[in-house]
Structure prediction request, 310 residues.
Amino acid sequence: MSNNIKPGIAIHGGAGTILKAEMTATAEKEYLQALEHCLQAGAEIITKNGSAIDAVEASVVALEDCPLFNAGKGAVFTHEGKHEMDAAIVDGRNIDGGATSGVKNIKNPIKLARAIMEQSEFVMLYGAGAEEFAKSIHLDFESDAYFYTEHRWNQLQKIIDEQRMALDHTSEKKMGTVGAVALDVFGNVAAATSTGGMTNKRYNRIGDTPIIGSGTYANNQTCAISCTGHGEFFIRAVVAHDISCLMAYAGFSLKDACDKVVHDKLVKIGGEGGLVSIDSLGNIYMSFNSEGMYRACQSLGGEKVVQIYK
Ligand code: ASP
Prediction:
């Protein structure tokens, strides 16, 4: 390990209108504990000299398995009352990537994204074909009942009543998306993101999460980024790759690059949300322009940070 790098990991469980005034003490505690648990899943790997790609996958699997967050178990409902999930993973060593979108009943979509990266000749598979590939490599499937959570179902009913599309992060506590970024002791970065997308989505809508360069990106020369927010704007702003480019071509620091994109470029087009990021030296920056973002991070040997509000 080079002396001047600080291996570490950062995770998020979605950004949006998360106000302390609207959170009960019990719910706040549950979220903080869940974030700490999911951070630990990846931090442990980094501490034991494991790889960044294993660490981000482990944290995202833990987040997907937690019903509090909009990914895997607890994913939001589509208009038709189904769960269509998106995920992507990028390995900063060679900018290798795997992504999947619109998949149903896959227990851990992030595992599918990784398998696409490592075990197929493709980068992105969607829908029934992606599920067929998942079956061929024996990934775990779950019934619709596994993905059902009462609060997500109630969100859908409320939105249908109100006859509007709701971005998961804009109204109430309909938080969306989970993600992780890490730098390992070998100097490699990786990013992983997974989501159920937006409540009441239809027409096979796909957000930024599985689009490499928009919601997810990693490059050893610059940084690793995992986004959460109003996907349409994150796609248009090519958020994750833009940050990497500002660092690579314009010499920006990680913080300046994130601020430029999150607090200027996105704001100008009306895009709400945030991201977690880590650069190739291990600087961690968790940036958002919304009221809050479920987030946590830890550098090797350093203090754990677990936060929700601005
Ligand atoms: N970015 C996700 C999407 O648009 C949703 C979110 O992060 O809240 O699908």
